[in-house]
Design a protein that fits this description.
Number of helices: 17
Distance between the termini: 25 Å
Mean pLDDT: 77
Radius of gyration: 23 Å
Structural class: alpha+beta
Helix content: 40-55%
Number of strands: 10
Order of helices and strands: EEEEHEHHHHHHHHHHHHHHHEEEEEH
Strand order of the largest sheet: 9-8-7-6-10
Shape: globular
Number of domains: 3
CATH superfamily of the largest domain: Hypothetical protein af1432
Low-confidence stretches: 69-74, 394-412
CATH class of the largest domain: Mainly Alpha
CATH architecture of the largest domain: Orthogonal Bundle
Strand content: 5-15%
CATH topology of the largest domain: Hypothetical protein af1432
Length: 420
């Protein structure tokens, strides 16, 4: 049976299922049926081959993933493709409909990746940091989808809400992915041709008093980066592919606003306190974008991820963010997301799964763990001689064969149940 593996998941001994060719020279690099060696894998990495198709039975694949602590995803190609899609927009002077369609397709892939792999956001945090706008937009979108997914699950658990109320409050994951990928599209208006090419600008009146009559005319004549979301809304408003996606445009418009109404548009309190899905989605994009901007700035100096997130948490508390969403964010995208499988070292050693995270800077990096396979709790807040040595994966993808009693069918059923 053929299975696609990310190049980093490929191990010597796997059998290549499809021939790999050098398309520039037309020559065969490695023929189908070849048993891969370390040298083969090294050559492919140097040629920027992202993924391979290999022959494995279902049982072999599951055992191989477990024995080698492999997380079975092909997310690198999703990330790279999304970056290329955004870069295509940033690289043109006028917005191209085909480029937007490409972004929408990659937004769908990001959503699918997160729904299939709870550890996607952790791996993206560990992805090589890059300050170019396209990289920032892709990370922001990925964090925002993960946060919206967690938020939707909480809405589902509110018994006092009717099904219709739940539907109205839940965030459409595809729409928030598109809005987050495009949240900085307004920067294209720094180019006068784009800015003056917009057919009509909106004067929102009392809802957004930051757009005074003078500012309304000034923004059309002179680019103001503080109003990127305002420009972005108007660009999105003229894109055919987004005509039926009013929620996407609304999220882009208010993605720079804050809880105190001190954002560039000075959004009114009745809108700020609304739990409408597009308002909540915009707040999520704002938090995720600020998080990534802070991470990019600080990781340049090779400060530890733990210290950056500790400082970031304190910064967020001092700023004007929705406190409930911020708590959800920290629980969803912490240093060690819930379900992450880790290797412990010290008086307690071996594998464990993160069970509980803490939304405070002191215990931010000290989760409560459940050991594998004996299922004993370890509280790192109270343990000074045990540390997390290595992050392995997440509970959904790496559900232990020990916990399933070594039975492949039980493994499959339990993994499916946890995904549901």
């Amino acid at each position: 049976m053929k299975h696609i593996f990310d190049i980093d998941m490929v191990r010597p001994g796997m059998q290549l299922a499809e021939t790999i060719k050098d398309y520039n020279a037309g020559a065969t690099l490695i023929a189908a049926g070849t048993t891969l060696t370390e040298r083969h894998i090294d050559i492919l990495k140097r040629r920027n081959i992202d993924e391979l198709t290999v022959n494995l039975t279902k049982e072999e694949k599951i055992k191989y993933q477990y024995d080698n602590n492999i997380i079975p995803t092909v997310n690198r190609s999703v990330i790279k493709g999304s970056v290329r899609a955004i870069r295509g927009i940033n690289g043109i002077k006028e917005v191209d409909e085909e480029a937007i369609e490409d972004v929408i397709e990659h937004a769908k892939k990001i959503v699918d990746s997160i729904l299939l792999d709870a550890n996607f956001t952790y791996k993206l945090t560990d992805y090589k940091m890059n300050t170019e706008p396209s990289e920032h937009s892709v990370r922001t979108a990925t964090y925002a989808v993960a946060l919206a997914n967690a938020y939707n699950k909480k809405i589902d658990k509110i018994e006092t809400l009717t099904e219709e109320s739940k539907r109205k409050r839940k965030i459409d994951l595809e729409n928030i992915a598109i809005a987050a990928l495009l949240h900085d599209i307004g920067k294209l208006c720094a180019d006068e041709k784009v800015r003056k090419g917009i057919k009509s600008y909106s004067f929102f009146g009392d809802s957004f008093p930051g757009i005074t009559k003078d500012k309304y005319f000034d923004l059309q004549e002179n680019y103001d980066e503080k109003f990127v979301s305002y420009y972005g809304y108007h660009i999105a408003n003229e894109i055919d592919a987004l005509k039926t996606r009013s929620s996407v445009k609304a999220m882009i418009l208010v993605s720079s606003e804050d809880e105190a109404g001190l954002g560039p548009l000075k959004m009114q309190q009745n809108l700020i306190s609304s739990n409408a899905s597009h308002i909540m989605g915009a707040k999520m994009i704002n938090i995720c974008s600020r998080f990534d901007e802070y991470m990019m700035e600080n990781l340049k100096d090779k400060v530890s991820l733990e210290k950056v997130q500790y400082d970031l948490f304190k910064l967020f508390l001092e700023n004007r963010f929705n406190k409930e969403l911020l708590k959800d964010f920290i629980e969803t995208i912490p240093l060690y997301p819930k379900g992450t499988k880790v290797l412990l070292e010290g008086s307690i050693s071996g594998y464990a799964v993160v069970e509980v995270n803490f939304a405070d800077p002191i215990n931010y990096s000290k989760p409560i763990l459940l050991t594998i396979p004996d299922k004993k709790y370890v509280d790192l807040r109270k343990t000074t001689d045990t540390v997390i040595k290595q992050v392995i994966g997440d509970e959904i993808q790496m559900y232990s064969l020990y916990m399933a009693g070594g039975d492949i069918e039980s493994f499959e059923e339990e993994s499916a149940r946890k995904r549901a």
